[in-house]
Write a structure and sequence with these properties.
single chain; alpha+beta; Glutaredoxin; 5-stranded mixed sheet; 3-stranded antiparallel sheet; 11 helices; 14% strand
Length: 371
């Protein structure tokens, strides 16, 4: 009886977790692709440069792996080809366990991206989660007879359910890629107050690790005794730290970060001019012209890019982009929006609008958000 209950517990947990993990990543396939690229760069540096050849296919691999998680999770729950599905899940989890252990042990990738931006796990937490999954899968492999005994299932019906889950996953991922994620868990989501997120939510507290006579001593305040040697400073409440630490905007005249939080600003983000969708700028330019010709309410158009000044100067003439432009870090722009180009609307530093280049808003829609 106990073994049967354990088997069914593992069945629900493993199936549900794989579906949840896959859907979270399908919600943001570009974000998952960015995480895969990070792994490829690490492996190319540590093992072989052949891993760099996978970077152009990161988006396809993102969709494939995330879809596989959902489909296998559904197949497990409906008990479709149970033995085959369990072994596929086991080897997939074994592969993820290697990745998370390598990241944790060598401190290579500080966030595995297991649950996208929705749930952040440390490398060791990710590894522990995968070890637990492996144990549960071993339980299922040795007790799968108890799952079959749940009742006779029609293979045609369960096969149809699995096929529908495959189609659903592909539709969700393609739509999310061509637009923005359905659910935005990033710091720059609509409603986010960027200046506030750049400040700690509470005073940060630290412990100071000092050394004296070959022994480490911990202090809650920095010691005045100069005979101690400083080793490191450990934050006690890192969750209260700033959620955004790297948002900076500049040009040749200096830093313009604070200016971005003044009044209404329509930001056109161009991460990489070499990969930007040129055709979308016809519609973006019409919007910018409307913004400039209608000053009530006043909205200041701004272009921000991570490309070099020389590259962007050539690019803006090619697409007839006339708004003033500034520079920001490429990683920041990838976090702010997945599209290239994409648009954000700030009202005194609060994100009130966010659009993929496939969803360029009308002038009326933009104005309605800042009235």
């Amino acid at each position: 009886m106990a073994l049967r209950l354990l088997s069914r517990f593992a069945w629900v947990v493993v199936g549900g977790l794989f579906i949840f993990s896959g859907l979270i990543k399908l919600n943001d396939p570009v974000g998952t692709a960015i995480k895969l690229e990070e792994y490829f760069e690490v492996f190319s540096a540590d093992f072989s440069t052949v891993f760099l050849s996978f970077k152009p296919f990161a988006l396809y691999l993102s969709i494939l792996l995330s879809t596989l998680e959902v489909v296998l999770g559904v197949a497990l729950l409906v008990r479709w080809r149970l033995n085959t599905v369990l072994w596929l899940l086991f080897f997939l989890t074994l592969f993820f366990t290697f990745l998370t252990f390598y990241s944790a042990f060598y401190n290579k990738v500080t966030d595995c991206g297991c649950f996208g931006d929705a749930i952040k796990l440390t490398p060791w937490q990710s590894f522990g989660k995968d070890v637990i999954l492996l144990v549960l899968l071993l339980v299922l492999l040795f007790t799968q007879r108890h799952l079959v005994s749940l009742g006779q299932t029609n293979r045609g019906v369960t096969g149809t359910i699995v096929a529908v889950s495959l189609l659903f996953s592909l539709v969700v991922s393609v739509y999310a890629y061509q637009h923005e994620p359905f659910l935005d868990f990033r710091a720059y989501r609509k409603g986010a107050n960027i200046p506030q997120l750049m400040k700690p939510s509470a005073p940060l507290r630290y412990q100071y690790i000092m050394e004296k006579g070959g022994k480490e001593v911990t202090f809650d305040t920095y010691p005045t005794d100069t005979t101690y040697t400083f080793k490191k400073m450990v934050p006690l409440n890192p969750e209260d730290g700033p959620k955004i630490t790297d948002f900076n905007v500049w040009n040749d005249q200096g830093d313009f970060t604070k200016e971005m939080f003044s009044g209404n600003r329509l930001l056109v983000l161009v991460k990489d001019v070499n990969k930007a969708d040129h055709e979308s700028f016809a519609e973006i330019n019409r919007l910018l012209a409307g913004v400039e010709n209608n000053q009530s309410p006043k909205i200041v158009p701004v272009v921000i890019t991570s490309s070099s000044s020389q590259e962007f100067d050539v690019f803006r003439h090619e697409v007839n982009l006339s708004a003033p432009y500034y520079f920001a870090d490429a990683t920041v722009l990838k976090t702010m929006i997945r599209a290239n180009p994409g648009l954000l609307l700030f009202r005194d530093g609060v994100v009130v609008g966010k659009w993929h280049y496939n969803d360029v808003p009308s002038l009326q829609e933009v104005q309605s958000l800042v009235r």
